[in-house]
Automatic annotation (TrEMBL):
Cofactor entry: pyridoxal 5'-phosphate
Protein name listed in UniProt: Cystathionine beta-lyase
Organism: Ponticoccus alexandrii
PANTHER family found in the cross-reference section: CYSTATHIONINE BETA-LYASE-RELATED
Stored SUPFAM superfamilies: PLP-dependent transferases
Gene3D superfamilies: Aspartate Aminotransferase, domain 1, Type I PLP-dependent aspartate aminotransferase-like (Major domain)
Catalytic activity reported: L,L-cystathionine + H2O = L-homocysteine + pyruvate + NH4(+); an S-substituted L-cysteine + H2O = a thiol + pyruvate + NH4(+)
Domain of life according to the entry: Bacteria
Pfam families: Cys_Met_Meta_PP
Family of the protein in this entry: Belongs to the trans-sulfuration enzymes family.
Gene designation per UniProt: metC
Biased composition (Basic and acidic residues): 11-21
C-alpha cells in the first residue's frame, strides 16, 4: 500500500515529516531564517533541486506545512500564506487583468467581496455575484472574458451548499479556472480537487490551526496553475512565519479527531435548537430537514461545527440578555477553534444577487469541543433570560 492509498488519519499523521533530515526530530523544527548561505559560487548559481534559497521563499518548516496541505487536499502543489484573506487576495490577483470578468458566489466571505469591489474594480476587473444554488445555470452568466469562478460551499453565514460538479463542468467547457473556499470542511470533509476544482483555499486560522492562536491561509492547487499563483505570491511578498507554520502542523495532526467531534456535537446542538420555540429555523446542511441536505450528502463526508439559526427576537436590548451572560459560548470573530462561539450576524448587508430575509435575528454558532450537553444547558439558560 502506498502513502497515497492509506487512510486520511494515517496520511495526516505522517505527511510533511522527514525526521531523518532533522536529526530524528519527529516534528519539523522551527527554522527562523532570512539569509541562506552557499559554500561555492557554483552552488549559488545552481537552481537545480534548490528548494531553500531565501527565507521569504520558504523554510523547511513552511515547506513541511505545504507538503502536508497537499496530502490533506489531494493537490499537486500548495502555498502557505499569512492569513485566509491573503490567500484569497493572492488567488484573485493571479487572474486579474484589465477587462477580465469574475463570477463570485453571493454567499462568499465578506472580505472576498470587498477585495473584488475595492481592489479589482480599480484594476479594471468586473465581478458578477451569482446565486450560490445556481448550479449548471451559471452558464448563462459566462462571458468570453470570464477568467475565474469563485465558490464557497457552504456559505459561512447562510450555509447554502453549491453544486460544485455542475459548476466545474460548465467552467471546463469554457476553459475557465475555478477556485473554492473550503474552510468550512477543514479540507477533511470535502475534497474539491477530486471534483476537478483548480484551486482550494482555506483560512487555516480556523480548523487547521484548531486553537485560535495563529493567522494562516492555505492554497492547494493543480500543477497547471501553481506557477502563476507562486509568481503572484512572490511579487506580493507573502510569507508565513516559521512559528505559525510549526503550530499549523501541530494542529493538522489532530484534525481528523477534532472534525469528527465537531460534526457529532454540532448536529446534537443543531437538533436541539430546531426544537426550541425561540428558534424560527436552523441552517445546518447535514440535517435531513435542511433544504441543502441532498447536495451536501452527495459531496461531503461530514460537517464541521459551524452553522446558523434564526431567532424570533430581534430587539437588541433583549438579545443582550442572551448573549451577555453565556458561560461557555464566547463572542468573537473567527471560528474553528476548540472553543464554542455565538454571535449575531446580518448576512443581508453582503447580498446583491439574492436576498436574505430571515424574519428574525440571524445567529452564527460554532460548536467547539465542549460536552454538547453543557452547551445546550448554557443556551437554554440564555433563552430563559431572553424570554424573561
Amino acid at each position: 500500500m502506498t502513502f497515497e492509498e492509506s487512510g486520511a488519519d494515517t496520511r495526516l499523521t505522517h505527511c510533511g515529516r522527514e525526521p531523518q533530515q532533522h536529526h530524528g526530530a519527529v516534528s519539523t523544527p522551527v527554522y527562523r531564517a532570512s539569509t541562506i548561505l552557499f559554500d561555492t559560487l557554483a552552488e549559488l548559481d545552481s537552481k537545480e533541486g534548490k528548494r531553500l534559497r531565501y527565507g521569504r521563499r520558504g523554510t523547511p518548516t513552511t515547506h513541511s506545512l505545504e507538503d502536508a496541505i497537499c496530502a490533506l487536499e489531494g493537490s499537486d502543489k500548495a502555498l502557505a500564506t499569512p492569513s485566509g484573506v491573503s490567500a484569497i487576495s493572492n488567488i484573485l490577483m493571479c487572474f486579474a487583468k484589465p477587462g477580465a470578468h469574475f463570477l463570485v458566489s453571493d454567499s462568499s466571505y465578506g472580505p472576498t467581496r470587498k477585495f473584488c469591489e475595492f481592489v479589482l474594480r480599480n484594476l479594471g476587473v468586473e465581478t458578477t455575484y451569482y446565486d450560490p444554488t445556481i448550479g449548471a445555470g451559471i452558464e448563462a452568466l459566462v462571458r468570453p472574458e470570464t477568467a475565474l469562478i469563485w465558490m464557497e460551499s457552504p456559505g459561512s453565514h447562510t450555509f447554502e451548499v453549491q453544486d460544485v460538479d455542475a459548476i466545474v463542468a460548465v467552467a471546463r467547457s469554457h476553459g475557465i479556472k475555478t477556485a473554492i473556499d473550503n474552510t468550512w470542511s477543514g479540507g477533511f470533509f470535502l475534497q474539491p480537487m477530486q471534483q476537478g476544482v483548480d484551486i482550494s483555499m482555506q483560512a487555516g486560522t480556523k480548523y487547521i490551526s484548531g486553537h485560535s492562536d495563529i493567522m494562516l491561509g492555505t492554497i492547494a492547487c493543480t500543477e497547471e496553475v501553481y506557477g502563476p499563483l507562486r509568481e503572484t505570491y512572490l511579487r506580493l511578498g507573502l510569507c508565513l512565519g516559521a512559528d505559525d507554520a510549526f503550530l499549523a502542523l501541530r494542529g493538522l495532526r489532530t484534525l481528523p479527531v477534532r472534525m469528527r467531534q465537531h460534526h457529532a456535537s454540532g448536529l446534537q446542538v443543531a437538533d436541539w435548537l430546531a426544537q426550541q420555540p425561540e428558534v424560527i429555523r436552523v441552517m445546518h446542511p447535514a440535517r435531513p430537514q435542511d433544504p441543502h441536505h441532498a447536495q451536501w450528502k452527495r459531496q461531503f463526508t461530514g460537517a464541521s461545527g459551524l452553522f446558523g439559526f434564526v431567532l424570533a427576537e430581534t430587539d437588541r436590548t433583549r438579545l443582550a440578555r442572551l448573549f451577555d451572560h453565556l458561560e461557555l459560548f464566547g463572542m468573537g470573530s473567527s471560528w474553528g477553534g476548540f472553543e464554542s462561539l455565538l454571535v449575531p450576524s446580518n448576512p443581508a448587508v453582503y447580498r446583491t444577487a439574492t436576498e436574505w430575509e430571515p424574519a428574525g435575528q440571524t445567529v452564527r454558532i460554532h460548536v467547539g469541543l465542549e460536552d454538547p450537553a453543557d452547551l445546550i444547558r448554557d443556551l437554554r439558560a440564555g433563552f430563559d433570560r431572553l424570554g424573561a
